[in-house]
Amino acid sequence: AARTGALVAACLAGVAAVAALAMALSSTSAHAQWLSPQAMEGQAMAGFTSASVRAQPTLAHKAVVRMGQYNVGQLGASIPTSSAEAAQYTPGPTLAAPALSVVVSMALVGGAVLEMVRRVWRRTTTRQDDSQWAMMAVSCAEIDAQFPPLKNDNVLRAIRGEPVDRIPVWVMRQAGRYLPEYVEYTKDKEFFSRCQNPEVACHLTLQPFERFDLDAGIIFSDILVIPEALGMEVKMVKGQGPVFVTPLRTKEQWYELEKEWLARVGVSGVATEDQDEEVIKKAPELVEALNYVYQAITLTRTKLDGRAPLFGFCGSPWTLFVYFSEARKTKTYTECSKLIYTEPEFVHRILKVLAHICAQYLIRQVKAGAQLLQVFDSHANVLPPKQWREFSLPYLTLIAQLVKEECPDIPMVLLPKDAPFALEMLTDSPYDMVSIDPTLDLGKSHQLMLAAGKGVQGNMAPTTMYAPPEKVGQLAREYLIEAFGESAPLPRRYIANLGAGMNPDMDPACLGAFVDAIHEFGAK
Ligand code: 1CP
């Protein structure tokens, strides 16, 4: 009833404004952006899907107000932004005559009301709009405006190839068990429950910032939250790592899973051979199951208060597939290997579906506030180079393409773990930076990627962290000097990191020494 009432009221207001609108159209083009349906369509939701608006109404409301638009997505009940708010952000009138200004103002209101009516009408008559809104490109600047200004953008500058104030540094698993405060805080919280509680995830993400002068944060979560949220039972078993209760190894199991996923979004009766394409279409809706991650990101970026940018992340399709098929820790990788050699088409089907899900998940993380993204191909080393090119690279590429279609300027980093052969194959990929492992030579890898207009992140051996803290500083200095020379300018397109994550038995003081040594490098 409220929706119908609002619709009727909006219709009346719209009709009343039509005359003024027509006059204004003929007299000025200064505010044409208000009147062109394409421009309205393009800017209005600015990539906030209706679901994201539900998740962060205040932020989204501010976003649409800032753009002088209408918060239709949240509606159902079509509440226009107040004219005072809209006026605050309306481009200043260029017409001097007051009478004309009145006409223009009326036109603005009228045009916008008409647009609103059109949107509400479409929204009440078709659900297709959801996916159209979800498909709209959004720039980082539009999202940045919702958060505290960034005081330390060295990581972003490094990725863009701009000069930096110091070599930026962060490490993988910087929130983790090597920190006594992490152990204390998590002792009564099951692993996935930590990820699912935005306050807890935020708290854990921020813990290392209390100790270290880090240049980036990474949201506390896990690459396995996707399967967990999509109904595949996975347990973090002490001493064993993740265990999937039911290994996924047959076509029948996968088809059943596709069917279940479709049922979640209200789709049934699709022929088995078409299910994958249908799941791909529904991927934006499916990843709403991970709303807690988006909330954690929004909260954490707000609380970080611009100290450093925040990474969102996901696992690669290949890496997820290894976890699904092996189901538990393995040294032999028997099951995933058997499948790629006996059922390659089936594996490709799984990987393609996963790539679309990963991409939509990353897009939602960006819209929630993630300032850059890292994709973890943690099981890249399981595949020989030729098979990596066939079973992992195309899906990593697809993820980056899909993400960048919708978030064109989001920086993306790829970690092909322990797969040094991957570096050359990535010189022409859509990723901006490659995170390299310790087997690669930093100087040479950096040169190779610089020539391709890309950067590297990494790669000091994590085992260096077992040296005494004073020695860690010295080793870090030597490592940088060897790669870049002693008196060279600060390297561009480089982010310092370890080649892999922190282990639980590492001394936090060693990480402190590493971070400080990196920052001191090249300091005048
Ligand atoms: O008790 C605990 O705290 C469990 C340890 C732990 C932690 C701290 C796990 C279990 N996951 C995480 C958090 C996590 N995982 C983060 C955010 C924290 C941060 O980095 O600061 C990130 C980015 C990940 C990503 C992740 N999870 C990867 C990719 C990175 C990598 O190490 O290659 C992988 C492979 C996982 C799977 C995973 N999660 C946890 C375990 C024990 C494992 C298995 C690792 C393996 O198979 O070797």
UniProtKB/TrEMBL annotation:
Pathway(s) where this gene product acts = Porphyrin-containing compound metabolism; protoporphyrin-IX biosynthesis; coproporphyrinogen-III from 5-aminolevulinate: step 4/4
Q: Does the keyword Lyase apply?
A: yes
Stretch forming the signal peptide:
1-17
Instruction: Give residue ranges for domain Uroporphyrinogen decarboxylase (URO-D).
Output: 168-177
Per UniProt, the keywords (alphabetical) are:
Decarboxylase, Lyase, Membrane, Porphyrin biosynthesis, Signal, Transmembrane, Transmembrane helix
State the GO CC annotations.
cytosol
List, alphabetically, the Pfam families matched. Answer: URO-D (PF01208)
What protein am I looking at? uroporphyrinogen decarboxylase
According to its UniProt entry, this protein's organism is: Euglena clara
